[in-house]
Structures are given as structure tokens and as C-alpha cells.
Write a structure and sequence with these properties.
Helix content: 10-25%
Number of helices: 5
Radius of gyration: 34 Å
Structural class: mainly beta
Order of helices and strands: HHHHEEEEEEEEHEEEEEEEEEEE
Shape: elongated
Largest sheet: 16 strands, antiparallel, barrel
Strand content: over 45%
Strand order of the largest sheet: 3-5-6-7-8-9-10-11-12-13-14-15-16-17-18-19
Number of strands: 19
Distance between the termini: 71 Å
Amino acid sequence: MKGRAIRLAAATAAACMILGATPALAQSANADLLLKLKEKGILSDEEYQQLMVRDQAQAAPAQPAPQAAAAALDDKKIVRMSDSGVGFEMAGVTLKFSGSVNGFYVHDSGDKSTANTTVAGGLATVGNNSSSVRNGLLPGFLKVDVTTKQAGWDIGAHFGLYPGINSVTGVGGANSGGNPTALGTSGIDFRQTYLTFGKPNIGEFKIGRDIGLFGSEAILNDITLLSSGTPAGNAAPSNTTLGRIGIGYIYTDFQPQITYTTPKLGGFQASFGVFQPLTTIGSGEINGTPGFQAKLVYDFKAGGVAGHLWVSGITQKHDGVGGFPSYTGNAIDVGAKFSVAGFTALGYYYTGSGVGTTGLFLLSTAANGRKRDSDGFYGQATYTIGKFTLGGSYGESRLDLAPGEINPILVRKNSSWVGQARYGLTSWVTLLGEYVHTKAEAQGINQATSNAAAAGAILFF
């Protein structure tokens, strides 16, 4: 036993003498020396193995702690994955991409065109049957968000491009009339260009072009946002269908604005802003004051029930032109959405005076400049089990004649029934099928109906 200890000490001392060389050279020399000592019988097999293990452990370079290794690098040159979405973070700046692509086969069958089916402002198809391969209510989109923190402020630049898959005429912009002929090209609708800055305890300020406040919750919670809804212009499709726009709510639109949103306080969050004044469609008015919009949202959970409630409003003064009087358009909407155990139900209602129907300030006044009142609603329900979702909705948009107005072919009501089935193929891709019955009724006896079927897919990332 004493002899074995002496041999191990001698071998170890010899190895230590060699360790004065570079680590790689020392490890190689030690291995050679220990092997020769074993071959000469000075070391047993067991002693040789013990010394080799000890030698390799001493020669292994020390590994710095993860924190020390990270600190040794220039943090501004490190690229990290973003916490969510598709993107990355570098030098304190996060670049994130999100987007969507969709396409549907749509067949639309409407009443034949006769004197009795003429409804000015009606949204039911009138004329021959048509087939198309087109976008749904959403075109495609690619959104780019660049965010960072500077001087304690959360800063962001946001850009949203919305290209369609169908060719357009180009007369009037990206969402101009469809042009299904050879050598055509689709339109790119650059809907979003805005900056944000804020703090968690202060709220967020937004300056630029983005979705409005009034009516925004109506379209963002509509099941036809994922699909087609009422096709409109199916024979020569443009970038989008109508969905339920003008058949349950007025389109919120994307508008230039300066908007402030509060922090969330007990489930409540408010937004209000100053907006580019919109002209009455078909008018050459020049407005001297901006538009104003506001929205209040409340989210809660109670047991297994989740709720989302909202109210929003719009007001804007329109200056008279060509001898017509000035008028102020006002509208308010309310909505509620409840979810429990795969079942979701939603109810929505709006009412206004001088805001029109389908689009903001479209058909909002009579020929003499007097205001028309309007209102509308929609209700919908969905049930999800596994990857399947079944949904249905009904909605109406109604327009009244102005005081003293006589116009029997002006639309009085647009309405539709929607039945929808969805299947979540993957976390990105959803397959959809839909049936829509649309009806347009005039102030007089005229009316028109149409039926549409759609099938396709939508992808979000």
C-alpha cells in the first residue's frame, strides 16, 4: 500500500512538471508519460486510470458562469428572439412581423334585374350568377412593428400593408373596382402608418393612420372578418368583400388621428382622439373643425364566464357648401360579448343622425342637405369543440328618410343571415365554409335578395 502511494505521488509530480507548458501540450505529454509508466509496470491498470481521470479534470479549461459570459459580450451586438410573434430583438430594439393571407371560392346568386329590384344603396346582388376566387372581408396584410424603450418611454413605429389577390382598375386607389382581365395587377392598400409613445402608468399616445374608434369593436368581433359575408361586386371582385359592413354596422375605416388610450384600470380602458374631418360622400365641403371619437371597453372574468363590453361614439360638424346648410353627424354604439365553455354570444347596436349607412357619411343627408337618421344591430353565436367551430349571425342596417324627403327607391334596410363552419387545420391555418342570405329593401315596395356560398382558408402568423 505504501509503495502504491509513492508511485502515485511520483507520477503526479512528473505530470505537474509538464503542466508548465500550454494546456494542450501538457495534456498530451501527461498522457504519454502515464502510458509509459504503465507499460514499464510502475503503474497498475487501476492506478493508470485514476491518474488519467485526474489529469483530464485538471486540464479542462474553466467554464465561465452564464452571467459572466453574457456580461463579457457587447449587449448591443446580441440578437435575441422576440417574446412573441415572428421577430427579433437587437440593441434594445424589437422588430416584429405579423400578417395574414386568405382566399375563397365564392358563388353569388341574385335576383334578376328589374324595375322592382332597384334599391339605391342596397347590398344584395342583382343580376346574373357569378363565381370568383377572391379575398374575404380581410385582404392579406403584412404588419411591421419596431419598438424600443427610450428615456423611460415605450416607443413604437407601426406600418401595415394590405394587398389583395384580385386585379383592380387602379382608378381611385388600391381598393378601386375589380378588373378580372389579363395583364392586370392587384392593389396594395397601405392602411397603417402611425407612431406610439407611452408609459404603463400614463397610457399611450398614437399619431398617424390607423383603425378608428367608433365601430371598431363591431367589425373586429364579427365572425365574417375571417371569411366572406355578403360578397358585393363578385363578378369583378376588388380587394375585399363587405362581410357585415352596412348590414349590422357602419364601417369604422382607417383614419388619420391623434388618439390617447388610458392604462387599464380594474378592467376598464378608455380611448379618445381627434380625427381628420371626413367630407360627406359626394360633397365638395371644406370642414373647419376636426372629428372626435371615443371608446370605453370593460373586460372581466367571473367564474367560467369571460365578458367584453364596449361603448363608442363619433361626432363631426360638416360645413355647408353650395347653399346647403351645415350639419353635425353624431352616432353611438354599444356591444357585449360573453364566452363560457366553448360557447360565445355577442350583441351589438348603433344609432346615429347624419352619419349615414355602410360607410361614414355615405347617404347621410338628403338632396336638400337635411340629415337622415340611421341605426342597426347584429347578433351572433359560436360554439367550438376541439378544432371545429360552428357559428351563425343575423344583422340589419336601417336608414330613414330626412324630414320632408320623398325617395321610394332609397334603401330602407339591408339585412343578412350568415351560417359558418371553421376547422383549425394548424395553429396558423383555418379552413372555412359559409352560406349568406342578403336582402335589400327600399323605402317603397322594391326589394332584392341574393344567396352566396364561400369556401377557402385564412392564415395568420
